[in-house]
Amino acid sequence: MTQHTRKSSGSHTSWGRRKAAAVALAALLPAGAAATPVAHAADGSPGGRQGEGRRGEVVSVVPVARHSRAEIAGELEAQHVGTGSLRYGVRAYRVTYRTVDPYGRPTTATGLLTLPEGGGHRLGLVSDTHGTMADRGYAPSVAEDARVQSYLFASTGRAAAAPEYLGLGEGPGPHPYMDTRSSVTASVDMLRAARTAARGLGRTVTGDLYVTGFSQGGQVAMALARAVQDGHAPGFRLRALAPVAGPYDLTGTEVPALTDGRVNDVSGVFYISYFLVAQNRLHPVYKDPAEVFRQPYAARAEQLFDGRHEDEDIVRQLAPNVRTLLTDDFYRRLRHPTGGLGEALRANDGTCSWKPDVPVRLYAGDKDTDVPIGNARTCARTLAQRGARVRLLDMGAVDHNGSYRAALSRIARWFSGGSLESVGPGAGSRLSTSRSPARSSRP
Fold first, then answer.
1. Residues 6+ positions from 332 with CB-CB distance below 8 Å
2. Residue 5 is inside which H or E element, if any?
3. Is the confidence at residue 45, as pLDDT, over 50?
4. Using one digit for the tens of pLDDT, what is the confidence trace for 217-255?
5. CATH number of 251-347
6. What is the pLDDT of residues 178-194, one digit of tens each?
7. Does the structure show a pLDDT above 80 at 174?
8. Cα distances (Å, whole numbers) of residue 240 to 156, 172, 326
9. 20 to 30 A Cα–Cα from 47, which one of 67, 111, 189, 408?
10. How far separated are the first and last CA of the chain, in Å rounded?
11. What is the predicted pLDDT for the residue at 72?
12. Mean pLDDT, the chain, as a whole number?
């Protein structure tokens, strides 16, 4: 569920965080575009709960980057991601917009809007939801190293919207990690904000929506697509769905994998700690951290997930594995979830229990020890049983981040020009699988 490319890949040293680019870009924009307030909600709807009426309203638009096609190609090549779909340079903007918190109260969130430099005036929109991050400063609208996938999709000639969920980027408060409902509301509202912001920048975002996401974002993408199809994003039409390595099956696959060795120790400790701390704010998982964490970890776990610690710093201060992190009693509960833990899992599971009206491609890797491929297999079966046109593409012997690198260019090609009316041999209600040759998992 994580995206560690910033810290683990040496290829990013030449890419860096180009703060000077944002300053230079501001001078090239129309007057007022660097911080553009908008008076009305993007969809004009009154809403039912407090804060609903202003959902999607843009607070500000700030330029953060500009890159040529050659620069984008160079970074993608360094990460072993195909560049065949690239056509244009891009400009990227941090969009701050109004949304609601898990209780329906008004708040704000940030996201990255990336537009192609060139192409048509009217642009379809790609929604790309990101993976797990504890450090709010690594969100796409803040960190250059988290933007390359947005650049890829925008360079093909579409707008790209990367929502950051609540409490990440420059959004206030703690991040409600793995709270699917609030991740979806923030993502829906980013679609509305992207349309408004693009209009202020001289482009028109059409209703054609292509949805993808990686890891935690894969699960969010699945739930977001359902919300769009169900009419919760008026004016947007779902055209295709392509999540990568999402934890779609929490109860049946992901949580059991934390205790049976399918999830590696470092990631397992990180995920379960983050989940328990964040979900305890929404569900009665524990009254005292010592009920679930052994000491000394109980005394520090909540402080580590304050949005200001980097992933590596968090891992260094926690146990070497899940078994020694958790109390004996809670470890048993993890294997047979009850109470607040069971409630939290049920509230965020079942994202594949619906029938998309559009083609679906699920991407996953055989050697993924963060989100085992069983998540995708279960999701594909569940979708197919409901009559969906779904295809599971096995990326081969690659790890978690490797599955994303292997899938990105394929998704970009599919969204750009591949047939969206068929998913090959698995069209209709049949499930089709495809295996890719083994690839190196090195960045």
1. none
2. helix 5-8
3. no
4. 999 999 999 999 999 999 999 999 999 999 999 999 999
5. 1.10.260.160
6. 999 999 999 999 999 99
7. yes
8. 16, 32, 41
9. 111
10. 17
11. 98
12. 87
CA–CA separation, 102 and 283 (whole Å): 12
The CATH topology of domain 19-249+358-443 is: Rossmann fold (3.40.50)
pLDDT confidence of residue 19: 36
Q: Tell me the three state secondary structure of residue 418.
A: coil
Separation between Cα atoms, residue 257 and residue 369, nearest integer Å: 9
Give pLDDT, residue 417: 80
Strand partners for 392 = 362, 433
On the 0-12 / 13-18 / 19+ scale of CB atoms within 10 A, 31 is exposed
Q: Do residues 374 and 258 lie in contact, with contact meaning Cβ atoms separated by under 8 Å?
A: no
207, two tokens: 């209703």
Task: Establish whether domains 19-249+358-443 and 251-347 are of one fold.
Answer: no
- Alpha helices, H only, 89-211: 148-155, 180-200
In the block, tokens 């206030």 appear at 172
Q: Who's near 25: CB < 8 A, 6+ residues apart?
A: 63, 64, 65, 66, 91
Residue ranges per structural domain of the chain? 19-249+358-443, 251-347
Model pTM greater than 0.70?
yes
Please state the separation of Cα 29 from the chain's center in Å.
28
Instruction: Give CA 81 to chain center in angstroms.
Output: 18
User: What are the C-alpha distances in Å from 174 to residues 213, 217, 276, 302, 357?
Assistant: 22, 18, 13, 11, 35
